[in-house]
């Protein structure tokens, strides 16, 4: 099945491991590190082999296998200054940021990086962080209403002078931000619920989905596009996937089995208790992780569900199939980041480009008939 708009080439992003514990909550060996020198080299490698984006995670306190964590915006800026082309997306929480302050930071980051700074607005699932910091915890749809205002304020401050905004959560009075960004920072937002999709369609440039199979992607994508079209907008679609590329399918499947078999059970179950409550708190019951299994949550954004597991050929074909359904970007997690991003860039990404070129050629031939 294809959708109304298909990108010429799918883009690639990777999760920045600025949080300890890697991208799976498992005691399997993970040859990765959350320190800056490792991440600096990783960003430079990813840029060299063809990744366009990196997403810095946001976590403020030790929890669920993430004992240590670097703050996302400052870490993103450091990676931007260590690279030349890579766009770095900093995840931020409304409720812990005032949008005018983030807008100022973002404008500076834009100028320092030559227009490569972006923001992922995370409405918040981790109640414990907010309450530990003495901040109010809002109900599910109220968090998304706050995020909607946050996104609107960012956009206005980055594009307008003498900004006035009177919302339920933020009030801006005759405020002018200078300098403004030279390149408008792209705004990303995720979530599964109706409130999340509505926000993305009306206010974001990109919608991030947790891991999904083909049917799940299509259902979400069509819904977000419907909302966006009603608002006279267009939104791009990013899909999370945990990538296990090996020379044989058997090797890749064995790695997946070992990850799950060695899962840190207390950490996974603690995470499941927190996020299942968060997902089911959505009025429609469609919040993130509402239907995630224990195995899904070993990769904490349902990355196994996207099934990017197998040989380079199998993974490339599945990525191109997602592209045909309207996916614009794959957000990849890896077990051993440095070596696996190298492998992906050498073995998988070229196959994706070959398949995309072949499909475009076939479409041109059909159009000429």
UniProtKB/TrEMBL annotation:
Domain named Luciferase-like: residues: 11-328
Keywords on record: Flavoprotein, FMN, Monooxygenase, Oxidoreductase
Pfam family of the protein (one): Bac_luciferase
Entry annotated with the keyword Oxidoreductase: yes
Database matches in InterPro entries: DMSO2_SphG, Luciferase-like_dom, Luciferase-like_sf, SsuD_RutA_monooxygenase
MF-aspect GO terms: alkanesulfonate monooxygenase activity
GO BP, sorted A to Z: alkanesulfonate catabolic process
Entries under NCBIfam families matching the protein: LLM_DMSO2_sfnG
Record protein name field: Dimethyl sulfone monooxygenase SfnG
Origin species: Kribbella albertanoniae
């Amino acid at each position: 099945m294809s959708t109304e708009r298909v990108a010429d080439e799918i883009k690639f992003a990777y999760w920045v491991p600025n949080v300890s514990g890697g991208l799976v909550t498992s005691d399997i060996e993970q040859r990765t590190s959350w320190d800056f020198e490792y991440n600096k080299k990783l960003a430079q490698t990813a840029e060299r082999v063809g990744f366009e984006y990196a997403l810095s995670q946001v976590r403020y306190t030790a929890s669920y296998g993430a004992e240590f964590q670097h703050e996302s915006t400052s870490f993103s800026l450091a990676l931007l200054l260590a690279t030349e082309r890579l766009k770095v997306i900093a995840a931020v929480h409304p409720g812990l940021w005032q949008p005018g302050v983030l807008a100022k930071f973002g404008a500076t980051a834009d100028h320092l990086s030559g227009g490569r700074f972006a923001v992922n607005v995370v409405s918040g699932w981790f109640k414990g962080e907010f309450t530990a910091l003495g901040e109010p915890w809002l109900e599910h749809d109220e968090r998304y209403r706050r995020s909607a205002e946050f996104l609107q304020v960012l956009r206005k401050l980055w594009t307008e002078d003498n900004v006035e905004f009177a919302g339920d959560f933020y009030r801006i009075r005759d405020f002018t931000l200078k300098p403004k960004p030279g390149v408008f920072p792209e705004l990303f937002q995720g979530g599964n619920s109706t409130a999340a999709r509505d926000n993305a369609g009306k206010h974001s440039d990109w919608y991030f989905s947790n891991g999904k199979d083909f049917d799940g992607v299509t259902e979400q994508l069509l819904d977000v596009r419907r909302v966006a079209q009603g608002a006279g907008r267009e939104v791009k679609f990013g899909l999370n996937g945990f990538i296990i590329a090996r020379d044989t399918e058997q090797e890749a499947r064995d790695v997946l089995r070992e990850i799950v078999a060695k899962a840190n059970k207390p950490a996974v179950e603690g995470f499941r208790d927190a996020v299942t409550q968060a997902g089911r708190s959505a009025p429609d019951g469609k919040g993130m992780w509402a239907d995630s299994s224990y195995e899904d949550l070993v990769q904490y954004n349902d990355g196994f569900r996207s099934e990017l597991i197998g040989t380079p050929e199998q993974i490339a074909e599945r990525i191109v199939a997602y592209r045909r359904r309207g996916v614009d970007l794959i957000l990849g997690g890896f077990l051993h980041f440095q070596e696996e991003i190298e492998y992906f860039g050498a073995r998988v990404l070229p196959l994706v480009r070959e398949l995309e070129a072949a499909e475009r050629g076939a479409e041109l031939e059909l159009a000429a008939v």
